[in-house]
Specification:
The structure holds three protein chains of three kinds. Chain A is of the alpha/beta class. Chain A has five domains: 229 residues, Rossmann fold (3-Layer(aba) Sandwich), CATH 3.40.50; 244 residues, Rossmann fold (3-Layer(aba) Sandwich); 52 residues; 204 residues, Elongation Factor Tu (Ef-tu), domain 3 (Beta Barrel), CATH 2.40.30.300; 157 residues, Sec63 N-terminal domain-like fold. Helix content of chain A is 47%, strand content 14%. Chain A is built from 40 helices and 24 strands. In chain A, helix 25 packs across helix 29, helix 34 packs across helix 35 and helix 34 crosses helix 39. The two termini of chain A are 16 Å apart. By secondary structure, chain B is α+β, with helices and mostly antiparallel strands. Chain B contains six helices and 13 strands. In chain B, the strands form three sheets. Chain B has a five-stranded mixed beta barrel with strand order 8-9-10-12-11. Chain C contains four helices and nine strands, in the order E-E-E-E-H-E-H-E-E-H-E-E-H. The chains are: A alpha/beta, B alpha+beta, C alpha+beta. Chains in contact: A-B, B-C. Chains B and C meet through helix 1 and strand 1 of B and strand 3 and helix 4 of C. Chain C: It comes from Vicia faba (Broad bean). Chain C: Keywords: Cytoplasm, Exosome. Chain C: Its main location: cytoplasm. Chain C: GO terms for molecular function: RNA binding.
């Protein structure tokens, strides 16, 4: 809507565009495919020399990046525009549409979100009229020249080979940075790879640092040049402030010129009012408390914040928080505030009820609806995905009309249509990402702060961070001033994708893999790896060793000896043999704990120390706290008195490091596994009864040292394995004989007498290591040059064959055809359920309820267990899912069976059952705690799945089942859940 | 019993019979009771939901075949695979059809299915490969692309409200200029990724004819085998349809199948 | 005239309840989608089925089911009489209609919308019971064409001469002017789909005669099933895997 706004004349004049134009220029680059010869200039200039009338004229001067992009469009070459949300990328899209319409070509506009598609449809429809819309929910005029759709629809159109694919000349991918989305990102890659070869693209993306890489990929895949127009330009500069919790003021940390003010940042941190109770820090929800509880006398932080914003006339303001509940909670804090006059209130009420008019009377009484209006009237809004879609849209409209001054929103509000505010507040700087709280990334920060500053209205945008704990200046800096997230591939395979590709006549899953952005990025890494190899190889060559051959010989002998010694030790120290000798006071030699594992010790003697056995004990199970204990010999551990260095790690856990006796350290009794003992001597020393005093232990150690010096000449009497310990295993005898033989070989070795032998060996060892490293890099290199995902593809194909979805010649079988149809739910589990006849015997309502498990992914902690018959169905589903997962595991697909099984949530079964039974929406909301919006989304998705199942039933000729699915659709598709969007 | 409409001498008859008997013995015995005719009931486990697919119907809770063919089961799905029927298109199949009519914005094609198939003008790649909307001029020029009686190769796109639609989304589809079109019962041809391409010279055509008279499965490999056989016995083309060669092919096929079976 | 001798034998030496020799062969017309020859004694008919295929006359196209058409004709040489019947005579039209209605009843027409199925039956040799033979041949041809059907239809006639119910009348018996019932049944569904009678018959005897004809139908059904099964198996093994 930004462009619409700018069209109004009175706002156009104050735009201080020219000055900023000079300041912020845009970057323009072109990626050519390999071996591409740019069309000779004569032909290009020919077409442009006619100076075609521009397809569309804009009533304002274009920014340089816009005109640059439009030039590319006129040359009919693809372009990637990477700029901030508010910069005006829509202009490029509009121009591309106008141009296609002029040339009698079709154009497709895709966006990641249905709501955004709806909004864009409305916007384009006003402008061009020949516009159609296709989302999962609605289809309007599919024969129009300009089609607005979601990316998913575009993908499936390509799989089905819609005629649009043959007529579309321009494809506009909006918000293409969505490609890094873990779940849905792969859709973009599929769509881009499969797009018709003669089509041209317009990619609109937030600022991404690796736009060039993306363009290179497009150029390579489609064998056409792709331009990059990149700009950091913000039409309205931003100021970043910090609001320390509990304080009174704002601290400017980054000014509009982008300078980070360290001093002011420190001042802000110092102003942090320390938390009242120390425990609050540990509590994850701490800050909600801080905001909400506040002392009765003083107002909560959030209230203060909003008040300050209103006073300073920084409104309208968007306050971002990271959970739906929090969002609502904060809005409730504003109860006392009224930001609107009477005329505004009337307007709001009028707009609100106009929109709600399409709801039935019962639905109008929904608590969410009736609670919202008073809040809205006071100029306060809430926007998150848990709202009824219709409410969300009303709030968006009211916000655009300027009737909402203060909007509490979640991150979703930052994506999509241009709905800027003067000020953006981050009510938290940490975000829960599934398993832990982490700082916001700079990319997220950029995206959200992009909402600040209305072009042509505000001369600057304001960003306020509310922080409640100390943060490092570097953290803050990287968040506020950091680079945008780079665009990385989130490619992954799905069965539906593989089957569709296999069914597609010239489709080949491998082809898709080869052309994926993922592969492209992997290929990029190759030169780096090659460089590394080269460096290592050079280093290896530079190491020159005299008499290398004999040294190598010697080294190998040492290695052999070591492994043999280890064998012997293993036999001797097996609990069976050595337990009787682990009496208190026995002197043993033990290995030191060495931290640098890189260099394996050449001479064992270097790493040995001595200790006295105190006792030993049996351990049950693997104790987790001592990482030094290997599971295979965890059954016994020995307490030994020796010298240690005590270290504390960050968690405050102590770790002991055994060091040679003469080094600095404390005499301590430590538990070690038997394998850490090197040899057992025949000596036992007297031990004081009480080892608790430090002195006693120190003395004992001294005694050990004394003993050692005493025996220095003769060597310590070791326990003889055969005579003393009565070991009679043949393997021991064999090993000891070989050791003898080896030792004789050592004597013959000349090089052993060389004085520098140790150093030489070390150098040699380094060389060996380099060789090993080169080898391992070469291995990764070869695995990247071979196809990424190749093994997974193989494994997944194996799964498909095992389940009878495809034949050995990769021909899609009957079951595969069914799975092909299902793209909105787990295709394998659903197909298996269907083929196992589960849907056949149950009632329609039960079936709908069962299918709800496929679309509901949120976890509700205290959801009631569904009634028995539904629960039985659910366990049937779980069995099937488990079987499917297990089979995948057998076929070497990496999958966690339990997680997979648990990903089907029964939480809304009961609710959906009631809905299918014909209950009113307010009735079903009474039996659940889920958000209205989430529930509606799930039911809509459920309908999508049902439509796909109808197709599937058709394809196997099961008419009864088909009728059943049809009935199911008619049962759920009603009322508020399927209320049309306001934007249509 | 299905007679083979050939004039056979006594010895040829015996040889053919022997070859066919050998084939019969080769076919898997387990499958023999899976054959059903119309109105035969198909035994299913009635305790839980059975999915009744193509060629089956429900009669008082009993699953009954509505076709002659072989019962196939996939998990709980039961369906009857017909052995002789018209071609039944599946999405993604590649079909060959003859243009019957050039209609408005579309060609009507006979693909040996229960209905004619439509190939929309918009479902065709333009000869020049340009992406654009089809105009009225393009419609007038449709005959320049295909006209009546042309044989076209295209891909099945799916059923739309008005019938079966085809598409030609890559360059390899389009008019087939050489070769001849033979209609066979498609159930003979095995489902492979690419059904047989129509590089049909007269040799191949006759080979296909022989195989279809005998009712053997038609794959590229087998067609090649038949052609090789005809070359090896130094046969004239016109003799390929003769009874002697037919018997020879039958014997050859019997041998081939038994050898492949042994290999397994 | 005596149609049943005191010994209980009919003119052609059959017992009253005995059917003539029946023989069927599938695949007589290789060009057709399905075809069959059916013989009952000296009566021999050939049937060929084309379809489901595109409807030739667009205006007849049905959007929810298949159009079934049937053409019955008698070869000129099928009877010894020299009497030439112009094509499209009333009798042919009537029998065409009878066969069409009978077959349409058992074809699952709703599975093949917007298409047409043509059934051609021709009598090669007529010796009574042509109507029944035609229906039987048509059933076989439809099954051969792989057209989905509710059930097989079989037909047989019976008459009442010399106070004796007679199964499967031949031409001489047929032309005796006595009552003549043609019955068509769906054996599996156990339903009657065709019942025609010429002349008069006491109501209490009708049941007997009809019963007899029904038995005949069932016998034919068994035979047809065997033929089809054999054919199916042969197709399967010839086709190979």
């Amino acid at each position: 809507m930004g462009s619409l706004k700018r069209k109004s004349p009175e706002e156009e004049t104050p735009t201080p565009a020219p000055t900023s134009n000079i300041q912020y220029d845009c970057l323009h680059e072109v990626s050519y495919p390999h071996g591409y010869v740019p069309a000779s200039s004569s032909t290009t200039s020919d077409s442009s020399s006619q100076t075609k009338e521009p397809a569309k004229k804009f009533p304002f001067t274009l920014d340089p990046f816009q005109s640059q992009a439009i030039t590319c469009l006129e040359n009919s070459e693809s372009v990637m525009v990477s700029a901030h949300t508010s910069a005006g990328k829509t202009v490029v899209a509009l121009y591309a549409i106008a141009m296609s319409l002029r040339d009698g070509q079709r154009v497709i506009y895709t966006s990641p979100i249905k709501a955004l598609s709806n909004q864009k449809y409305r916007e384009f429809k006003e402008e061009f009229s020949d516009v159609g819309l296709m989302t999962g929910d609605v289809t309007i005029d599919p024969n129009a020249s300009c089609l607005v759709m979601t990316t998913e629809i575009w993908r499936s159109m390509q799989y089905k080979g819609s005629e649009v694919t043959r007529e579309v000349a321009w494809i506009i991918f909006d918000e293409v940075h969505y490609m890094r989305d873990r779940e849905r990102g792969v859709v973009w890659e599929e769509s881009i790879v499969m797009s018709p070869k003669n089509a041209r693209f317009v990619f609109l993306s937030a600022t991404v640092p690796n736009a060039k890489e993306f363009a290179d990929w497009v150029a390579k895949v489609h064998q056409q040049p792709c331009h990059i127009v990149y700009t950091d330009y913000r039409p309205t500069p931003l100021q970043h402030y910090i609001f320390p919790s509990g304080s009174e003021g704002l601290y400017l940390v980054v000014d509009e010129k982008g300078k980070f003010r360290e001093d002011s940042f420190h001042k802000a941190l110092n102003a942090l009012v320390p938390a009242a109770d120390g425990d609050r820090k540990k509590d994850n929800a701490k800050w909600q408390k801080g905001l909400v509880l506040g002392k009765a006398a003083e107002e909560s932080d959030i209230f203060k914040m909003v008040k300050m914003i209103i006073q300073r006339q920084y409104d309208p303001v968007i306050l971002f928080s990271f959970s739906k509940r929090e969002c609502e909670f904060l809005a409730m804090q504003m109860a006392k505030m009224d930001l609107n006059g009477d005329t505004e209130k009337d307007n709001i009420e009028k707009i609100f009820w106009c929109a709600m008019d399409m709801l039935s009377d019962d639905d109008k009484k929904l608590p969410q609806v009736s609670n919202m209006l008073p809040l809205l009237k006071r100029g306060i809004g809430v926007h998150h995905s848990g709202l009824l879609p219709i409410l969300k849209e009303v709030i968006e409209i009211l916000f655009q009309e300027g009737l909402i001054k203060c909007l509490f929103a979640t991150e979703t509000f930052s994506i999509g249509l241009n709905m800027p505010a003067k000020t953006v507040v981050f009510t938290n700087v940490r975000k829960f990402d599934g398993d832990k709280f982490r700082w916001l990334t700079s990319g997220e920060y950029i995206q959200m702060s992009g909402r600040a500053g209305r072009r042509g209205i505000d001369d600057r945008g304001v960003c306020i961070l509310m922080i409640d704990e100390k943060m490092e200046p570097s953290t803050a800096k990287s968040m506020v001033k950091g680079a945008a997230d780079s665009l990385n591939s989130a490619f992954h395979l799905s069965y539906n994708m593989i089957l569709n590709q296999m069914r597609c006549e010239d489709g080949d899953p491998e082809n898709l893999l080869r052309n994926s952005f993922f592969q492209f990025q992997a290929d990029r890494a190759i030169p780096d790896l090659e460089k590394q190899i080269k460096a290592f190889e050079e280093e290896r060559e530079s190491i020159v060793i005299e008499e290398e051959d004999s040294l190598k010989d010697y080294y190998n002998l040492l290695e052999q000896l070591r492994s043999l010694n280890k064998d012997v030790r293993d036999i001797v120290l097996s609990p069976r043999h050595c337990l009787p000798f682990l009496q208190p006071g026995r002197l043993v030699s033990i290995q030191c704990t060495s931290n640098d594992e890189e260099l394996s010790p050449i001479f064992i003697e270097d790493q040995l120390t001595w200790g006295l056995i105190i006792s030993f004990e049996r351990i049950k199970g693997v104790s987790e706290d001592d990482a030094n204990i290997k599971p295979e010999d965890a059954s016994y551990k020995v307490d030994v008195l020796t010298r240690c260095v005590v270290r504390k790690d960050k968690l405050g856990k102590k770790s002991y490091e055994i060091v040679p006796l003469k080094e600095h350290g404390e005499p301590i009794v430590v538990s070690i596994p038997i394998s850490q003992i090197n040899t057992i001597t025949g000596l036992r020393l007297y031990m004081p009864k009480d080892l608790l005093p430090l002195e006693a232990r120190e003395n004992t150690l001294k005694k050990i040292i004394e003993t050692l010096t005493r025996f220095k000449e003769k060597g310590l009497p070791h326990l003889d394995p055969e005579e003393d310990m009565k070991i009679q295993s043949s393997s021991y005898k064999k090993a000891s004989r070989r050791i003898e033989a080896l030792e004789r070989l050592f004597e013959k070795h000349e090089i052993a007498k060389s004085p520098l032998i140790k150093e030489k060996l070390k150098v040699f060892q380094r060389k060996q290591e380099l060789t090993a490293k080169i080898k391992s890099i070469k291995r990764t290199l070869s695995s990247t040059t071979t196809l990424a995902f190749k093994d997974e593809l193989k494994a997944r194909k194996r799964v498909l064959r095992r389940l009878g979805y495809a034949t050995n010649d990769n021909v899609v079988d009957l079951k595969g055809k069914v799975a092909c149809e299902i793209s909105s739910a787990d295709e394998l589990t659903l197909t298996e359920l269907m083929f196992n006849g589960v849907f056949k015997d149950i009632k329609v309502e039960e079936m709908i309820s069962l299918l709800s498990c496929f679309v509901w992914r949120e976890k509700i902690n205290d959801a009631a267990k569904p009634r028995e018959e539904l629960d039985m169905l659910y366990s049937q589903l779980q069995d099937t899912a488990r079987r499917v997962a297990q089979l995948q595991l057998e076929c070497k697909v990496q999958i966690d069976v339990d997680t997979f099984v648990k990903s089907f949530r029964p939480d809304i079964m009961e609710v959906v059952y009631a809905w299918a039974k014909g209950s009113k929406f307010y009735e079903i909301m009474e039996i659940t705690k889920v958000f209205e919006g989430s529930l509606i989304r799930s039911i809509r998705r459920l309908e999508e799945v049902l439509q796909q199942l109808i197709e599937a039933a058709k394809s196997i000729g099961e008419t009864e089942l088909e009728a059943k699915f049809e009935e199911a659709v008619s049962k759920i598709k009603r009322d508020i859940v399927f209320a049309a969007s306001l934007y249509l | 019993m299905r007679g083979i409409q050939l004039q056979l001498s006594q010895t040829q008859k015996l040889r053919l019979q022997k070859a066919l008997e050998q084939l019969e013995s080769l076919s898997s015995k387990v499958n023999s009771d899976a054959s059903v005719t119309i109105a035969d009931s198909i035994s299913v486990n009635h305790e839980d939901g059975v999915l009744k697919g193509h060629g089956t119907a429900d009669l008082d809770g009993e699953v009954v075949a509505t076709l002659c063919g072989v019962v196939e089961r996939v998990n709980k799905l039961v369906y009857v695979r017909a052995l002789r029927s018209r071609y039944k298109p599946e999405v993604g199949d590649i079909v060959i059809g003859r243009v019957i009519e050039v209609a408005q914005k579309r060609w009507r094609l006979d693909i040996n299915y229960s209905q004619n198939a439509y190939l929309m003008l918009s479902a065709m790649n333009m000869p020049d490969g340009v992406q654009r909307r089809r105009t009225a001029l393009d419609e007038l020029n449709m005959r320049c692309i295909f006209e009546e009686a042309d044989v076209i190769c295209a891909e099945v796109r799916g059923f739309q409200h008005d019938g079966l639609h085809l598409q030609a989304r890559s360059k390899k589809y389009g008019k087939l200029t050489t070769g001849q079109l033979i209609t066979v019962h498609t159930v003979f041809s095995e489902e492979t990724k690419t059904t047989f391409p129509s590089s049909s010279t007269v040799w191949a055509a006759n080979a296909v004819r022989v195989l279809s008279t005998l009712g053997f499965v038609i794959t590229l490999e087998i067609i090649q085998g038949v052609i090789d056989l005809s070359l090896s016995v130094n046969l004239d083309i016109h003799d390929m349809l003769g009874s002697e060669f037919c018997v020879l092919v039958a014997e050859n096929e019997a041998e081939r199948r038994s050898s492949t079976k042994k290999r397994r | 005239m005596e149609y049943v001798s005191p010994e209980g034998l009919r003119l052609d030496g059959r017992r009253p309840m005995e059917m003539r020799q029946i023989r069927a062969e599938i695949g007589a017309v290789s060009k057709a989608d399905g075809s069959a020859v059916f013989e009952m004694g000296n009566t021999k008919v050939i049937a060929a089925v084309y379809g489901p295929r595109e409807v030739q006359n667009r205006s007849q196209q049905l959007s929810d089911q298949a159009l079934v058409r049937c053409e019955y004709s008698m070869a000129n040489f099928s009877t010894g009489d020299r009497m030439r019947k112009p094509k499209g005579d009333r009798r042919s039209i009537e029998i065409s209609l009878v066969i069409r209605q009978t077959m349409e009843e058992c074809i699952l027409t709703h599975l093949m919308p917007r298409s047409q199925i043509d059934i051609y039956v021709q009598v090669l040799q007529a010796d009574g019971g042509t109507r029944s033979a035609c229906i039987n041949a048509a059933t076989l041809a439809l099954a051969d064409a792989g057209i989905p059907m509710r059930d097989l239809v079989t037909s047989c006639s019976a008459g009442y001469l010399n106070s004796t119910p007679l199964l499967d009348l031949n031409y001489v018996e047929d032309s005796a002017g006595g009552p003549d019932i043609t019955v068509g049944i769906l054996p599996k569904l156990d339903k009657v789909t065709l019942l025609q009678m010429d002349s008069k018959l006491p109501i209490d005897i009708l049941e007997n005669v009809m019963q007899l004809a029904t038995e005949g139908c069932k016998a034919i059904a068994n035979y047809i099933r065997e033929i089809l099964l054999e054919n199916t198996k042969e197709l399967e093994y010839r086709r190979g895997s």
